[in-house]
Amino acid sequence: MKKMMAFGIVLMFCFSCFAQGQNNNSLLWRIKNNKDDNVSYLFGTIHLPQKKFVVYSDSVYEAIQNAKKFYNEVDLLNQSMFGNPELLEFFTEKGKYFDSIQKTDSWRRFIHRINKRYNVQLDPNNLMEFVEFGQKIMSETYGPEDGVTLPDMMLAQHALMLGKQTGGIETMLLQYKMIYGILDARLQDTTMALEDETNLMNHMKDFYLVENVDSIGKIVDNINPSYRKIVFYDRNKTMADSIEKYVSIEPSFFAVGVGHLGGNMGLITLLRKKGFVVTPILSKNKMSILVVNNMMKMSKENDEKL
Fold first, then answer.
1. Would you tell me which of 14, 20, 110, 111 could form a disulfide with 124, CB atoms 3.0–4.6 Å apart?
2. What CA–CA distances, in Å, run from 16 to 21, 66, 130?
3. What is the mean pLDDT of residues 132-153?
4. Residues 231, 227: Cα–Cα separation, whole Å
5. 214-238 burial by CB neighbour count: b if 16+ within 10 A, else e?
6. What pTM does this model have?
7. What whole-number distance in Å separates Cα of residue 35 and Cα of residue 187?
8. For position 109, what pLDDT does the model report?
9. How far is residue 196's CA from residue 178's CA, in Å, rounded to a whole number?
10. β partners of residue 69
């Protein structure tokens, strides 16, 4: 008990060293309804594996501690495509899809637009050239820093260290369908570009660091309509339904991409329409999850030695 109290004192001291100014926005939101006293939490992450994006307020760590279960968009710790009949069938069909799509005029026009826009010479009959070029465009924005994985994964691992069960509010199949849905849309919508996602992320990340969810919501509401519908609006409805289901079972913590929170069709708005009271939780005390998890591991190792 004394060791845990000492750990808590050290932790709070470290939090105070990371004090930041607060504003009217927050990445962390409280979810309540009128049926019971249960409190659940909605948190906006950003899918950038870089150190500056894994610094969270003390309220985030407390909320995960208070929740019974932790949810990402998908269950990052327990789901795999291997042994999943639905996913295997899906990818088998998509293999045939790519074989056929490369023979279409829409695909050739699509590759022609890419070649013209980026001054490259991709071969429409060489799928790997297209895949590698797409990865190259994204690598500068999404490149990981040493010791940092996706923030979503790091939060899930933190919850697991606290003894929480983890899950997902979407299925892997739904997310893979989204990826192929984007490709289908690009074949038809000539206003969509390969850098739509990286441009969106680059616009959002500065607002993320100051927790300005309103501005991020406005960015999402004004991006390419086809991309917005597939990546955000359609999925937000599914996420809101899942959240509604899970909060009725037990207090839960939901960590999703911050672009899903605000805006006209964001989760905050959709959950309020379902009758939930959704309010921001503000805190100026921040600390990196890298530091928190390292301290927890050291405390656990010391306990095991005694």
1. 111
2. 12, 21, 48
3. 88
4. 6
5. eebbebbbebbebbbebbbbebbee
6. 0.86
7. 47
8. 92
9. 15
10. 165, 252
Q: Please enumerate in sequence order all residues whose Cβ is within 8 A of that of 152, keeping only pairs 6 or more positions apart, or say none.
A: 45, 47, 72, 73, 76, 255
239 pLDDT higher than 50: yes
Q: What residues does each domain of the chain span? A: 1-19+285-306, 23-284
Residue type, 41: Y
CA distance 277 to 287: 28
Strand 252-257 versus strand 277-280 pairing type:
unpaired
Give the whole-angstrom CA distance, residue 90 versus residue 79. Answer: 16
Handedness of CA 110, 115, 121, 122 (dihedral sign): negative
For residue 182, what are its two tokens? Answer: 């984007």
Give the whole-angstrom CA distance, residue 305 versus residue 105: 67
Give burial (CB, 10 Å; 0-12/13-18/19+) of 63: buried
Cβ atoms of 268 and 42 within 8 Å: the answer is yes
pLDDT in tens, 163-193: 999 999 998 888 888 988 998 898 888 888 8
Residue whose tokens read 């038809």: 188
Question: Residue length, the chain?
Answer: 306
d(CA 234, CA 255): 18
Cross-strand partners of 287 = 56
